[in-house]
Amino acid sequence: MSVNLVNTIFGMKVRQARTEAGLTLTEFAAQCELSPSYVTEIEKGRKHPRADKIMRMAQALGKSYDDLVSIKLAPSLAHLESTLSSSIVRGFPFEEFGFEAGDLVNLMTRQPDRASALLHALLGIGRRYDLKEEDFLLAALRSYQEIHENYFQDVEDAALTFTAEFGPKYGFPTEPPVQLADLQRILQEGYGYQIDDKLIGDAPALAMYRSVAFEGKRPSLLINSALYPRQIKFLLARELGYLHLGTQDRSYTSPPDRTGSFQKLLNDFKAAYFGGALLMPRAAMLADLNHFFSQSTWQPQLLLDMLARYEITPEMLMYRFSELIPQFFGIRLHFLRFHNGRTDYRLIKQLNMNQLLVPSGIGLYEHFCRRWLSVCLLREMAQGQRPEPPSPADPPLVGVQMSEFLESGDKFLCIGFARPLAMQPDVHSSVVVGFRVDADLKNEVRFTNDPAIPGDIIHETCERCPLTAVQCAVRGAEPVKLRQKQAETERRLAMSQLAAKLRG
Q: Percent of the chain, pLDDT > 90?
């Protein structure tokens, strides 16, 4: 449900005027010769009354008709108007989070002046840190995934239905791996697609795209030839996801040129989810996970075997883990994907279902703890001798770590991979899933107690870490934030001591 600006502001003004007049909902409705339920619909922004009803409402409130129907708010409420008219709020799917736009209106109209001041402050913070609409929508999508534990039964069912529908006709396998040629044939013969892997390469300005889709009498899907076959397979499976799910509002480039709306972002996500479920069928993957978790010792070869069995990339495998493990093993997890830059490490993607202390300095350009498995794998990749350019046959680097936070003592069992990017061989990517260590984890994942798993003390960012240079040889920056906090504590203590001395 998107926000209708005219209805919303009208409902807000009616509710505010009714409250100022000291009228209950029932009293006001009676004076206007309307039902209380209809007035409620108006105040929540769901309905806009006819002119004759507005006249009666204005009379009951002691307002003029023009004042009530004007969409302009008082100066103190100007930030409410600008917020409600923003593309973020107007296109936000409130119903996906269990409430509606009217609930937001009610919240704001209880204390409109304070709400306006709060929104003004939030807008100021957003401008200061250059937060864009895309940042807000991506954060909303992460929250949406996390409250559903990143598992969507309707998409899982759609992938199974697709296999049952196309399997007999095109020889689509019921057991992995799905073949690239099968996906191409279904798109070409079943949906009339043209698939090309040369046109993007002929246009240097398009080299950043993994794929570009075009609608038309005969749809086209252009693939970047720099990708590995396993990555192309996923792009084809995702395109089939758009088609099978009947998606209308979608991105036509990968990566997308712009987010556009939450609905488009959600549609892109579900198509990608479908692609993963198609390439890694739930039943087969759960059997592999049960076997992996039943080992009494850490067996990295089993992860490499899964990559080979499904013919997928490490990112696809770890992300599929994030979809199935919380639902079927009752283990909450976090998912982190990092890339290394020339001098830093960048968090590219995350899901946080187990309250991991994700470094708080992300927006402040602080340095991630160099002891995190995600960063350790990237450092090891940078130090290793690997062929250039990378080959699809090159095995990724596999890692495991028992991570313990320095201050809280919380422990996480982390597993993951690192590899060079196909389209940017000088950039390495790591992908890690981590599980909070507790009694339930030890029951589900037998190798949790394997003494051979390396452990390390970790923190959030170098700027906030109390470990000395002697204690941590890989520190990326001085603990400036920690020192600021310590200096502030000393000032408060000195002020307290001075006040006590004066009182004495």
A: 61
CATH number corresponding to 153-279:
1.10.10
Edge-first strand listing for the sheet containing 220-223: 194-196, 220-223, 211-214, 253-254
Confidence band (pLDDT; 50, 70, 90) for 1?
Answer: very low
- Tens digits of per-residue pLDDT, 240-283? 999 999 999 999 999 998 877 888 999 999 999 999 999 999 99
Model confidence band, residue 169 (pLDDT cutoffs 50, 70, 90): confident
- CB-hemisphere CA count at 13 Å for 392? 13
Q: In the chain, which residues fall in CATH 1.10.10?
A: 153-279
Roughly what angle, to the nearest 10 degrees, separates helices 5-20 and 51-61?
30
* Reported pTM: 0.82
Residues of the chain with CATH 1.10.260.40: 5-131
For the 5-131 domain, the top CATH level (class) is mainly alpha
DSSP string, 352-402: ESS-----TTGGGTPPBPTTSHHHHHHHHHHHS---SS--TTSPPEEEEEE
